[in-house]
């Protein structure tokens, strides 16, 4: 094993904390830090990176990759902050006109994002026959009518995943009409068939360009400041990493990377292949399931901030139980409220006046060395104990729900509020509390998988051969991107019909992914070239 | 004729109004009865919610309460479900059909009946009714979803279809006068393919005289009841099976989905590899828009017209055939169909041989057939 250039830095910028870790070739955490997330993103990443690099000392030259996992995109959507206003161009009228773009979105999010929409003639039938001629004038009139009051454009044509050329034509038309500086999201580059879900994802992507610019600039700036000879990547929703330029164009793909990182980080830290993972934070506990070292994905389309998309996401169950969850002492139950990051001032344990689940846990055992609860009334103590019992029940039934009847799976506990999980949980096997579990997110980012994707067109009858061929090509690309040839595997197969006119034709898209090979190191030149969607 | 008490647990109070808050339960229940077909319900659920927001709740009327004034238009979308998630309905597409039917019959329509309760076709009529100011009949023509026009209770009852009106999302309207439902199926399918593999149609107008005995009653209420139980369930798959009187045939992971669109249908198969207690088992479900046959070790476990639904193993939500994907964790449920379909005429129209499978129908009984758990 080459001692040089085989360290990976993982940084996780969460809503509450920014964590950073350095992982060695053998997968050990050799340095770590945890600090409150700052409003100034660049500053937060800078100080976290500085902290772990300082710990490394001269070994910092061995850092070959810096991976960032971030909830910026998710938080921007959930909090309706820093979102761009999007001009939405749907191609396909009169079809689908029952549903205006952004139908079913929460009203405040729609108001924050929608600059205006046009349902223009265009789009295709499933067999490629035009629904209507592309209405270029309607698009130009629409753009003129907005008088520049938009930050980005989203284009979504009916059946564009099968026939993408028209969206490219509209992209050129928009650039020609309003200039090349306006960022444009094309639905055929974002999602699969399913008009509304793909359109939603495309609009969200367009709304996130500003957020993406800030965070990608922050990462590259900080890495450059430290003079690191390292490639920079972003973690995406399926647990693989993507190049920075790619993240800047497709920020919506970072959504869901947080839970994926936390589950995969928990897997790495505990060594478990199959397990239930619970990440107990300040406000919520997120449960996921690890199957063969991969996060189990949800079957149904999932909502992001109240918006339906068709992205593949880890199957996550969120509970309103966290270390900062406020306790209703009189009723003896956890309330639907959390003190969040203010826990270190407001909780009883820290001299504050708000009873929290952290305080409830502290009545039973020491949760934080050096901190003792003040003397409490018997009624308060009883209320805290009752609330803790309710929290345990909720955790237990959530574990049971995630286990799908498979008892005896280990329960891996990570996150700062892990002390809320009892040592024995009905329905689970051993309760595992890995060392460094509080920075599992950042570990997950550091060990993000290298992925590769390949498409193959084929006659419907040749489907099996085409999947095999595309799988081989995807695995090859994943290996080029750094994946360990011995551990790379196919993680997704997607088929899209593209023609019925002559011979029925399919587009087969296969994604392969695997952990980064640690023998020596992947040549950086290949990392840089990896602009493929990974 | 059709048993009024559809399935075990079917004794719940009937639903008389569908408000916005009922739509999610209706959609979840209709998806279960969709047996994988009838189109994914999520998109239609949104359309119905938007329609109720704008036009108000929809009245549900039992067959027994139809009067001489009533004329019930039987409607559905027809086509490939995999296209139905992309090529969505045009505004005004249903109004066109109703106007044309009123012109042909000289009667004002007062209610809508879903041709099939299963899938989006069981959900959409509520939105159409809201927009058109009509009631919804608490009944349907299948008690599930089927892919062909011939497979409908009115056909089992010998009630002919005298005309059909179709419209597509582009704006084309067609009026057909087929000699029977088999020819309606052939012509409607050809038009649908020309329209991009999806269209809407109406092919019956029922009255207080013709509806009794020729439809499967109470199915709108039943879908809402099943949906409510599912959405409130702590252990969704088990409670759903209990509510339906169904058997969980296998729980596992999808390792292959083969699917293509031909002639306005989605055809293919899905293979489930058992996990947990089912480890080591490979179960295949044959698909033609709907889930039709479950095969394991070369033997048939269940087949049409009995109901086969694939659900998410965690949430119990039905996964329609166009949304089946590699790697999903699913459970396969099977349960008995309405007695109507087990009659000689019913099996002739919708038994395995009607779908081209050379096998004899063996009635599925939960806990007996398969005997796998």
TrEMBL record, chain A:
Pfam families registered for this protein in UniProt: Hydant_A_N (PF05378), Hydantoinase_A (PF01968)
GO molecular function, one term: hydrolase activity
SUPFAM superfamilies for the chain: Actin-like ATPase domain
Residues of the Hydantoinase A/oxoprolinase domain: 198-362
Signal peptide span: none
InterPro entries: ATPase_NBD, Hydant_A_N, Hydantoinase_A, Oxoprolinase-like
Highest taxon listed in the record's lineage: Bacteria
Start and end residues of each Hydantoinase/oxoprolinase N-terminal domain: 9-177
Name recorded for this polypeptide: N-methylhydantoinase A/oxoprolinase/acetone carboxylase beta subunit
Automatic annotation (TrEMBL), chain B:
Record InterPro entries: S-Me-THD-like_C (IPR048350), S-Me-THD_C_sf (IPR024071), S-Me-THD_N (IPR010318), S-Me-THD_N_sf (IPR027479)
UniProt domain S-Me-THD N-terminal: residue ranges: 22-176
Pfam families listed in its UniProt record: S-Me-THD_C, S-Me-THD_N
Domain S-Me-THD-like C-terminal: 182-363
Endpoints of the signal sequence: none
Name of the protein: DUF917 domain-containing protein
Species: Thermocatellispora tengchongensis
């Amino acid at each position: 094993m080459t001692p040089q250039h085989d360290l990976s830095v993982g940084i996780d910028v969460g809503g509450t904390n920014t964590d950073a870790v350095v992982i060695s070739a053998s997968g050990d955490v050799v340095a770590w830090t945890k600090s409150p997330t700052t409003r100034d993103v660049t500053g937060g990443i800078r100080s976290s990176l500085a902290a772990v690099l300082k710990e490394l000392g001269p070994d910092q030259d061995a850092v070959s990759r810096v991976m960032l996992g971030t909830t910026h995109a998710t938080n921007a959507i959930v909090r309706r902050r820093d979102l761009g206003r999007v001009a939405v161009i749907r191609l396909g009228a009169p079809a689908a006109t029952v549903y205006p773009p952004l139908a079913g979105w929460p009203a405040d999010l729609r108001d924050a994002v929608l600059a205006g929409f046009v349902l223009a003639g265009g789009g295709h039938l499933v067999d490629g026959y035009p629904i209507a001629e592309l209405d270029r004038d309607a698009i130009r009139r629409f753009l003129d009518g907005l008088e520049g009051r938009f930050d980005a454009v989203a284009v979504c044509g009916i059946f564009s995943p099968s026939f993408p050329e028209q969206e490219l034509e509209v992209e050129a038309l928009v650039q020609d009409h309003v200039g090349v500086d306006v960022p444009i999201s094309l639905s055929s580059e974002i999602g699969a068939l399913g008009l509304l879900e793909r359109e939603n994802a495309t609009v969200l992507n367009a709304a996130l360009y500003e957020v993406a610019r800030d965070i990608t600039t922050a990462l590259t700036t900080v890495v450059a400041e430290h003079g690191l000879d390292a490639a920079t990547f972003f973690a995406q929703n399926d647990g693989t990493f993507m190049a920075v330029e790619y993240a800047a164009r497709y920020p919506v793909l970072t959504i869901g990377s947080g839970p994926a990182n936390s589950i995969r980080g928990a897997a790495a830290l505990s060594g478990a292949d199959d397990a239930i993972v619970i990440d107990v934070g300040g406000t919520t506990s997120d449960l996921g399931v690890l199957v063969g070292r991969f996060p189990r994905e949800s079957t149904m389309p999932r909502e992001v901030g109240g918006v339906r998309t068709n992205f593949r996401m880890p199957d996550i169950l969120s509970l309103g139980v966290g270390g900062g969850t406020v306790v209703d002492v009189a009723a003896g139950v956890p309330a639907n409220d959390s003190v969040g990051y203010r826990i270190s001032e407001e909780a009883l344990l820290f001299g504050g006046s708000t009873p929290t689940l952290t305080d409830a846990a502290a009545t039973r055992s020491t949760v934080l060395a050096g901190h003792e609860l003040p003397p409490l009334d018997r009624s308060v103590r009883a209320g805290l104990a009752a609330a803790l019992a309710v929290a345990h029940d909720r955790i237990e039934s959530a574990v049971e729900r995630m286990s799908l009847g498979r008892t005896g799976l280990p329960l891996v506990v990570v996150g700062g509020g892990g002390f809320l999980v009892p040592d024995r949980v009905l329905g689970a096997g051993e309760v595992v509390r890995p060392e460094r579990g509080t920075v599992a997110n950042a570990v997950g980012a550091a060990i993000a998988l290298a992925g590769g994707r390949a498409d193959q067109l084929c006659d419907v009858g040749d489907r099996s051969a085409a999947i095999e061929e595309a799988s081989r090509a995807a695995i090859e690309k994943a290996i080029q991107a750094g994946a360990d040839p011995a551990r790379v595997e196919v993680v997704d197969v997607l088929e899209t019909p593209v023609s019925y006119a002559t011979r029925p034709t399919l587009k087969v898209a296969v994604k392969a992914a695997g952990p980064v090979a640690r023998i020596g190191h992947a040549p950086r030149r290949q990392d840089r070239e990896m602009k493929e969607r990974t | 004729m059709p048993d009024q008490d559809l399935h075990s647990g079917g004794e719940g109070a009937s639903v008389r109004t569908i408000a916005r808050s009922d739509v999610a339960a209706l959609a979840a229940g209709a998806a279960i009865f969709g047996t994988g077909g009838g189109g994914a319900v999520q998109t239609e659920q949104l359309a119905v919610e938007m329609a109720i927001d704008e036009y108000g709740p929809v009245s549900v009327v039992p067959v027994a309460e139809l009067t001489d004034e009533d004329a019930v238009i039987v409607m559905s979308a027809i086509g490939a479900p995999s296209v139905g998630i992309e090529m969505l309905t045009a505004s005004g597409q249903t109004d066109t059909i109703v106007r044309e039917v009123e012109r042909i019959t000289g009667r004002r329509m007062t209610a809508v009946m879903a041709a099939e309760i299963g899938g989006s076709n069981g959900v959409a009529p509520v939105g159409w009714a809201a927009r058109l100011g009509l009631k919804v009949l608490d009944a349907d023509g299948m008690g599930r979803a089927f892919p062909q026009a011939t497979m409908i209770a009115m056909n089992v009852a010998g009630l002919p279809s005298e005309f059909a009106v179709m419209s597509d999302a582009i704006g084309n309207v067609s009026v057909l006068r087929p000699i029977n439902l088999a020819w309606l199926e052939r012509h409607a399918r050809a038009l649908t393919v020309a329209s991009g593999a999806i269209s809407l149609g109406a092919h019956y107008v029922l009255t207080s005289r013709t509806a009794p005995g020729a439809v499967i009653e109470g199915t709108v209420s039943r879908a809402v009841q099943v949906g409510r139980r599912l959405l409130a369930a702590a252990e969704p798959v088990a409670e759903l099976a209990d509510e339906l009187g169904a058997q969980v045939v296998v729980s596992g992971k999808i390792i292959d989905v083969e699917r293509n669109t031909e002639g306005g249908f989605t055809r293919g198969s899905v293979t489930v590899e058992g996990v947990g207690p089912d480890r080591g088992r490979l179960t295949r479900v044959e698909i033609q828009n709907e889930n039709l046959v479950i095969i394991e070790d070369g033997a048939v476990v269940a087949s049409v017209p009995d109901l086969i639904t694939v659900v998410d193993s965690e949430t119990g939500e039905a996964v329609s055939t166009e949304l089946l994907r590699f790697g999903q964790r699913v459970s396969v449920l099977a349960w008995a169909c309405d007695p109507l379909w087990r009659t000689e005429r019913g099996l002739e129209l919708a038994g395995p041989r009607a779908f081209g499978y050379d096998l004899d129908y063996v009635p599925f009984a939960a806990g007996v057939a398969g005997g796998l758990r």
